[in-house]
Amino acid sequence: MAFDSQNLDAFHWLADMIETVEVGLVVLDLEFRVQAWNGFMENHSGITATQIRGQQIFNAFPDIPKAWLTRKVDAVTTLNTRAFTSWEQRPYLFKFRNSRPITGTEEFMYQNLTISPLTNSSGKVDKVCLLIYDVTEFASSKRALERANEQLAKLSMTDRLTGLLNRGTWENLVDAEFERYGRYGQTTTLVMFDIDHFKAVNDTYGHLAGDDVIRHTAQVTRDSIRQSDSAGRYGGEEFGIILPETDAENAHILCERIRETIAQSTVNTTAGDIRYTISMGIAQLTGEPENYMQWMQEADKALYRAKEGGRNKVVIYA
């Protein structure tokens, strides 16, 4: 049947639109051989339609997940319905380099994918059409927002100077550990400690040097505890550590290691080299405290006794 002029014009503008539209269009037969490959795909893959036509897509792009795409296409052809996959489920089908200057921070193009069934004249599905949408700008913005939110969440939980948990977050964990002990009775120990004569450090060397000392204390603490332990800056020069599944004796061993490391260290500051010590109080949780605050008070009393005993000591509450 011959095309009339109107039909021929419609065919030309339709073909032109398919070639120039900013969406990838790929037609595959049911053996996954490429039947159509538009300009978007040529531009981003560097492969022309002539070069790829008739090739199986998995041979041309071996990094495409064959089992996954096969399952998707089987479902589309069997049910004769579209399937959609977003970049959040699978970042891309074709690993194209990101060529957008605005989102140049992303290594590759994030893609949404639609798979549509194509039927022949008898109504049988014998091909599928893949539509590949470049959503890099949207994905990049969302990922940046998620990173910013994660950073804000982290900042809201940590002390800016030391990177340890801040007072509110750490105290909430003390409360949670107290409740856990009430339910399961597992051994747990609390440590409170502070820097000896810290006011003299600030008065002699200045507050910036004092901050260096606080940071050094936090770093030694962080390097000494286990991943399951929780260290926080309680306020000023005072710190705390939660030691789950640890009795007072083992807590004493850990605290002595921290105390000795600090006593043998020199903090180099712009105002001069600083030597300092810490005092530590330990309280293993028993059935006596009625709430977590009373448990903290026990550790505080042990710390006070360490101060009274001459400082640079570790004392267990009894």
TrEMBL record:
Query: Which UniProt keywords are given for this protein, alphabetically ordered?
Result: Kinase, Nucleotidyltransferase, Transferase
Q: Which CDD domains match?
A: GGDEF
Its EC number is: 2.7.7.65
Which cofactor(s) does the record list? Answer: Mg(2+)
The protein's GO terms of the molecular function aspect are: diguanylate cyclase activity; kinase activity
- Provide the catalytic activity annotation: 2 GTP = 3',3'-c-di-GMP + 2 diphosphate
Against PROSITE patterns, the record matches this protein to:
GGDEF
Q: Which PANTHER family match?
A: DIGUANYLATE CYCLASE DGCM-RELATED, REGULATORY COMPONENTS OF SENSORY TRANSDUCTION SYSTEM
Name this polypeptide is given: diguanylate cyclase
